[in-house]
Structure formats: C-alpha cells, structure tokens
Amino acid sequence: MSKNSLLKRIIEQTDDMGAAEMRIANYVSSQPELVMHMSMAALSAECGVSDPTIMRFCRRLGYDGYQDFKINLAQTLVPSAPFEYEQITEKDSIENIVRKTCRNSLNAIQRAQEDLVPQQIADAGELLATSVWTGIYASGISEITSIDAEHKFQRLGMRCAAVIGRKKQWMHAEKARVGEVALIFSQSGATKQMVEIAMAAKAGGTRVVSVTADGSPLAQQSDITIAVRPYEHTELMTPLASRLNHHLVVNMLVTSIAVAKGSEFPDQLPALDSWQTDKL
Q1: Any idea what the CATH number is for the domain that residue 51 is in?
Q2: Which of 67, 106, 146, 158 could form a cystine bridge with 136, CB 3.0-4.6 A?
Q3: How far is residue 163's CA from residue 168's CA, in Å, rounded to a whole number?
Q4: What 3 state SS string does the chain have?
Q5: What is the pLDDT of residue 212?
Q6: Would 210 be classed as within a structural domain?
C-alpha cells in the first residue's frame, strides 16, 4: 500500500462514508499535521464522534487501528528525501542536466509545501480581491512571474497590470492611492528597487503584498508577506529552481481570490483565450 496515497484515498472514499466518518475524513484531510499528534480521544472530541467510529474509519482505509493509521499519516507528510540542491555546471552531461533540473524542481516544490503558510495566502487573496487596481512589480527574472500573475488575475476580471521597467514602476508607485494593492515579487527581498517601490506605494496609502524571503527588507515594508524561502545557491546554466515556487504562489492566489470574491467560475478562460475555440 503506497503511503503517499493515504490522503488521496481518504478523499476518494468520502462518497461511501456516513456522516460521522465524513466529519473525520474532512478534518484529517484539512488538518493532517494536527491529527498526527492527536490522541484518539482528542480526535473523537474534535469531530464529535465515538472512538469506535474512529476505529471503523481507520479499518476502512486498511489499518489495524488508530496508531497504525497515525504512523502512516506521518509517513505521508514527512518528505521522502532531504531538500537538496544539485548545482549544474559546464562539466555536466546532458543526462545530468536533465536529471538535476527535474530533481531540483521537484525538491523546490516539495519544500514549498512544507514552508508555505496557508493563512498568508488567504490574507493576501482577500486583500487582492477587494483591490480597485493591483500593480504587479518585479525586476530581473521575476518579471516573468509578474506577467504570469497579470494574465491569470485578469482572467478573474481583476483590474491589474504587470508594471515592467524602473521608470514606469516609479511613475505608478508615486501615484499609488488608497484602495489599490502593490503585489511585489522578489526572491531575496533585498533588491533596493523593490524595497523603495514598496515604500513609495505605502506612502500613497496603497497596501503592499510581497512574495519574498521572510524577514527580508521587502518583507519588513509589506502589509502581508507570503514567505518563500530562497535557495542559497545559484546555477550556472539555468535560473533558480525555487523560482518555480513563486509561480505556484500565483496559482494559489488565483484560487484564493476566486473564493474570496465568491466566483462560481474562478477562471474566465473562454473570454480571453481564443485558442480554445480557434483551433484547427
């Protein structure tokens, strides 16, 4: 039995569960880290069920009892390998480049799952959902992320723009006003330009959301920080694998904003992407 499939199997089996077991399944699926440290009595009280119901739930999933279930739940949550970063150099063969790129990307995503704080995503999503206009700021390779965010946010019907270029960024930041949001992407959080943009926007009454390193100068100037821990190393051949995590945050924000806005259809893809209907 694959340990990595436990949470997936819980969700898949909810349709066949009664109301009491459904409450257990919902709680375990949403709070697995807490359940891992809870006694059976504590979980029973939290879900409003009896201990025998907990036992039936565990046996439904193929475990002898609650302790066996918790051990497998813990194994599901603990990463199977340390978060390693393999430097790519000019001496690497194409086989090594492919392997290292894939492994570094997988490790970056796995570490994001461990590090990201869901409440930060929720708080940022709620603020962005109420913004009258959102300026999306970045520099260097992070500009790609800002353009990605612009495209996806506009599909939600948001008024926003990726503001690219130092002069244009200053023009917008200096005219920032109450009701707007500045969303800033910076891996290190120490880029002087981005910190100054945050300060200028705040001076005009704009709220600042940053996707950056926790405790960084940019984070200190932000109303809400979505903390993404950067890798300490850089690659010779390709951008940092951790840059993937900023794109993941964009996708998380899209769904969070849609929920905050009460959108029945969280994606207006047909309205903007003609390739859906214009294919040959």
Answers
A1: 1.10.10.10
A2: 146
A3: 7
A4: CCHHHHHHHHHHHHHHCCHHHHHHHHHHHHCHHHHCCCCHHHHHHHHCCCHHHHHHHHHHCCCCCHHHHHHHHHHHHCCCCCCCCCCCCCCCCHHHHHHHHHHHHHHHHHHHHHHCCHHHHHHHHHHHHCCCEEEEECCHHHHHHHHHHHHHHHCCCCCEEEECCHHHHHHHHHCCCCCEEEEEECCCCCCHHHHHHHHHHHHCCCEEEEEECCCCHHHHCCCEEEECCCCCCCCCCCCCCCHHHHHHHHHHHHHHHHHHHCCCCCCCHHHHCHHHCCCC
A5: 94
A6: yes
Written as one letter, the residue type at 219 is A
Number of domains in the chain: 2
Cβ-contact 250, 148 below 8 angstroms: yes
* Phi, psi values for residue 180, rounded to 5°: -95, 165
Give 10-residue mean pLDDT values along the chain (280 residues): 64 89 90 89 95 94 92 73 68 84 82 88 95 96 93 92 95 94 94 95 96 93 92 57 86 90 60 52
Residue ending a domain, among 20, 48, 77, is 77
Let me know if residue 47 belongs to a domain.
Answer: yes
For residue 95, is it within any domain? no
Q: The domain that contains 227 carries what CATH number?
A: 3.40.50.10490
Of 49, 77, 105, which marks where a domain is finished? 77
pLDDT of residue 7: 81
Whole-number Å distance between alpha carbons of 62 and 131: 48
Statement to judge: residues 34 and 148 lie in one domain:
no
CA-to-CA distance for 48 and 61, rounded, in angstroms? 20
The pTM assigned to this predicted structure is 0.69
